[in-house]
Prior knowledge:
This protein is of the alpha+beta class and 198 residues long. It has four helices and twelve strands; from the N terminus they run E-E-H-E-E-E-H-E-E-E-E-E-E-H-E-H. Its EC number is 2.5.1.9.
Amino acid sequence: MFTGIIEELGTVVAIDELGDSARLSIRGATVTSDAAHGDSIAVNGVCLTVVDNADGVFTADVMGETLKRSTLGRLRTGSPVNLERAATVATRLGGHIVQGHVDGVGEVLSREPGDQWETVTFSLPAALARYVVEKGSITVDGISLTVMAVTDDTFSVGLIPTTLKLTTLGAKSAGEHVNLEVDIMAKYVEKLLGAVKS
């Protein structure tokens, strides 16, 4: 489990293609400081398992399913990535409950700069639209954000200077893709209500 509060901006230093999967090597001094084999680190919102950790670089295997369903398959050597270690019992839940299980991919549609912050609008896949509500939580590339506005096929968020400076969203342009994870509570409520109606 994660909180959606990014700990650092890491860098992909190598990608080894292994048939229908890949092994990523990612530099991140903070997340590797106490990482051990088998630990979880979210990379752009995707929960990955640490295989090796040495000299500030960790490696993780990514299966074909994850490469297809997330933006990890689009990463290149040198790509910046949002990194967060798994939460502990003592972690402050500064964002919301994030699983690191990507539900879909969205696209940056527009950016509107303000005096101190920016409004960014993303496409919203039809299968996810029912889980996204105004003032609700959504995870974009691993970042816990509050939905400012939502339509049938778009949603907008406001990015404060810290988010713009310390995450990949500060540099994403219109047309670029992002990983989306909707609030897990909404999916559970839907399933429970469906069971009650049956």
